[in-house]
Design brief:
Elements lengths: L1 H11 L10 H4 L9 H21 L8 E4 L4 E4 H25 L4
């Protein structure tokens, strides 16, 4: 959801500074320990919205930027999408490895 919001900010503001967050602390909150079904539904709906947004972008839109204060630099949407694509595959690899280690089907 944060990635989606970062894209929307970059598309609607001139080089906005995004707000970083402490992922490990977010993972400690009660909603992170709730049943997975609603989270998967939320992710599915979010991806549908994000696909609609990405499909509407024009070539110039991909060069729009936001400032990431933790990295001290601006990041374009085309760079950011590449990073998120890698990040998603990285998470899937963790899940796949855990599934194999535990013989889950």
């Amino acid at each position: 959801m944060n990635a989606f919001m970062r894209f929307k900010l970059a598309l609607t503001e001139d080089i906005p500074t995004i707000k970083p967050y402490l992922e490990a602390r977010w993972a400690e909150l009660a909603d992170a320990k709730a049943p997975i079904g609603p989270s998967l539904d939320l992710l599915d709906a979010l991806h549908k919205r994000w696909i609609a947004l990405l499909g509407s972008l024009k070539p110039a839109d991909w060069q729009r930027e936001f400032m990431h204060p933790e990295h001290g630099k601006t990041m374009s949407l085309d760079q950011t999408l590449s990073l998120y694509a890698w990040h998603g595959r990285h998470h899937v690899a963790h899940i796949t490895a855990l599934r194999e280690r535990n013989s889950w089907r």
